[in-house]
Amino acid sequence: MASSINRMSVVLFLAMAAAIMLTTVHGQGTRVGFYSTTCPSVETTVRSAVQSRFGSDPTVMAGLLRMHFHDCFVQGCDGSVLISGTGTERTAIPNLSLNGFTVVDDAKAQLEAACPGVVSCADILALAARDAVVLANGPTWAVPTGRRDGTVSRAQDALDNLPGPSDSVESQIQKFTDRNLSVQDLVTLTGTASCATFNDRLFNYQGTGGPDPSIAADFLPTLRSACPQNNNGAARVAMDTGSQNEFDTSYYTNIRNGRGVLESDQRLWTDNRTGPFVGRFLGLGGGPNLNFNAEFGQAMVRMGNVGVRTGTDGEIRRVCSAVN
């Protein structure tokens, strides 16, 4: 009997050790249900804030998703993109068209009233991105929480680290690899874009005085209408044209048909490293078909743990737009 108990103790110890290692290596200290005792209303509160905005503005789905992506690629998923002020990440050109800040602010205000100083802005953003996808008929996934908020937000960091609209596939892959994300993650996670980020592609591609020849001829007038040559650059264009408020695979159909809004998007189809993943999402071969919904949720969890701050690192902001 004693030996059975000892064997059981060893098995339980090894199982616990494996779980701890898995959390440390893959989750970096975050876990599902982090606030189950300290603020059990966190998920319902964030979901309610997203639902309230989504009813009047369905574009907030793409906005929150893109905001979470832009946050994680600059100093990790630490909520630094939410900080306002001169020279912050919010003022960088790639972030000028971000949409959904008020959703995070509303959820934060409610959570501060219910659980003061407990829930980070970084976690609210991660949860809001998931909830927005669900509201747009997309998949759901369990969001590990426990992130803390960063205290530094610089526009230059956003310019240096975010994938650019004219990035080569090589550059895009490198930026994902630097964050321990794969080529498949790149194709899965790559929404809206400001006209300022790709206006040259429509009117003066690489100084030619004409458009990028890879743009489908019947799509060029649509883009030029949305982004006139002399516009102020602040207008937004959905990268998933035709179903921007629905969560589906039409983005991949668009780039296959030469209707990618950004040059970096279009290159995903033509490059032999990324093109097969596009084809597999569309069921066109190049390997076993991929279930986009399932792959997307897994990729979001991986991205959501890039460079997170946990434990005593960082802070819990009282207001998401300002450090304490």
UniProtKB/TrEMBL annotation:
InterPro entries referenced in this protein's UniProt entry, alphabetically: Haem_peroxidase, Haem_peroxidase_sf, Peroxidase_pln, Secretory_peroxidase
Gene Ontology MF annotations: heme binding; lactoperoxidase activity; metal ion binding
Co-factor note (free text): Binds 2 calcium ions per subunit. Binds 1 heme b (iron(II)-protoporphyrin IX) group per subunit.
UniProt-annotated catalytic positions: 70 (proton acceptor)
GO biological process: defense response to fungus; hydrogen peroxide catabolic process; response to oxidative stress
Binding-site residues for Ca(2+) 2, renumbered to this chain: 240, 248
Broad class of enzyme this protein falls into: oxidoreductase
Family: Belongs to the peroxidase family. Classical plant (class III) peroxidase subfamily.
Protein name stated in the entry: Peroxidase
Organism: Linum tenue
